[in-house]
Write a structure and sequence with these properties.
Number of strands: 8
Strand content: 5-15%
Order of helices and strands: EEHHEEEEEEHHHHH
Radius of gyration: 38 Å
Strand order of the largest sheet: 6-5-4-3-8-7
Distance between the termini: 163 Å
Structural class: alpha+beta
Amino acid sequence: MATEIVASQGLPPNTATTFLDASVAVGVPIWVFLVTFLFFVFVAVFVWWLAKLRKLSAVAGWSESLKNQDTGSVQVWIITRTQKLIIGCMKIEDNILSYFDKTKLGMWHHNTRESVIRVGGNPAVVVSEDFDQTRDIISEIAVTDNCDEFNVGQEKLLKLKEEGKLEGAVIAPIQNFVDYESYGRESLQIANPEGLRIRAFNIFSNIRFLKYFPQGRSHMFFGADVTLESRLLKTRTKPLGFWEKHAFLAGAIIIIVVLNMVAFMVPFK
């Protein structure tokens, strides 16, 4: 005989319900929608940070170079000819920057203490592949802006010179580095006796300064020149051996002996 089972109207022992278990649509509780929403938020944040890291990949070498930096090295920001930024650590000896990898020939001369930047409290220098000296960003901005203003304001400068206010200055457009060296630098000093002025806020452009950039002074050429001179110096300072020291004397003795033998063999008349 079958026994009738009556369904319990209550919950099992030690269980409870909340408003999250309430059904809002087609029997789906609220917590399902909440978990789905939080999952999509997590994915969106992950993708957002992934995009951020991709944009900051150019400066990823900043932290890596700090790990390899010691007293004989310095952090270097390299601007390539394709406008790519590379951050690394280089060896510095007697103000000459060079790679730790001996197969890389490029070198730079650190010519001024002012051409140093600080990022995160760490000092570093900026270089580029088309110049053999470290780049001074502030000076380049000042030279570029004032040269451009000098070229635009030729008529005004000519009037000032006619009034005797710019005596000694050459009023002519500064087209390249040769013009800047020959008369541009002195003319700018005369026109700006208190120093060159720049805007308080300015964005550095490696392209703008190329107009007034010295040509034919790449880091590869400079590295090859320094390497060649160092090899010649090592050759000159190498200790001489016995035959190297006495080769001239031995040759002179041999020549004298040969001449005496020839003289004895020649008959006298």
